[in-house]
TrEMBL record:
Keywords: Calcium, Metal-binding, tRNA processing. Residues 5-142 form the Archease domain. Signal peptide: none annotated. GO terms for molecular function: calcium ion binding. This is Protein archease. Belongs to the archease family.
Length: 143
């Protein structure tokens, strides 16, 4: 799939659509889209791997938790991420479950170029849809 994500017009926040041939790839590209609002990820090295395991009752909640968790790690652990790898995204009878890694390094104000602050992930107009090409995720983050 050529296009990983695109930004959509929004009056106050940042809205994007992320794409993937698989749902895992669409989740990875949603993370790239959110992080590239905050920081130029091409300036970040993938030196450190941060393991993430999340569950939710529905797929929208899992996306919200995924974006919220990597934003939390960015803010609290001062880690900027350059790559995202969703190793497993599965559903059992009660929950959706995600196992992933975010790869990056400690924030270095002398090298990393920052953009717009993202305050939080939101459920605003969130969409997760299967398309003829794979999957499309639409998400809005509070800036």
């Amino acid at each position: 799939m050529d296009k990983r994500y695109e930004y959509l017009e929004h009056t106050a926040d940042a809205r994007f659509r992320a794409y993937g041939e698989s749902l895992e790839e669409a989740f990875e590209n949603a993370a790239y889209a959110m992080f590239n609002v905050m920081i130029d990820t091409s300036t970040v090295s993938a030196e450190t791997s941060y393991e993430i395991e999340l569950t939710s009752e529905d797929i929208e909640g899992l996306l919200f938790n995924w974006l919220s968790e990597i934003l939390f790690v960015f803010e609290v652990e001062s880690l900027a991420f350059a790559k995202f790898a969703v190793d497993r995204l599965e559903q059992d009878k009660d929950n959706f479950r995600l196992v992933a890694r975010a790869l990056g390094e400690e924030i270095d104000l002398s090298r990393h170029r920052f953009g717009t602050e993202v305050k939080a992930a939101t459920y605003n107009d969130m969409r997760i849809e299967r398309t003829p090409e794979g999957w499309m995720i639409q998400a809005t983050v509070d800036t």
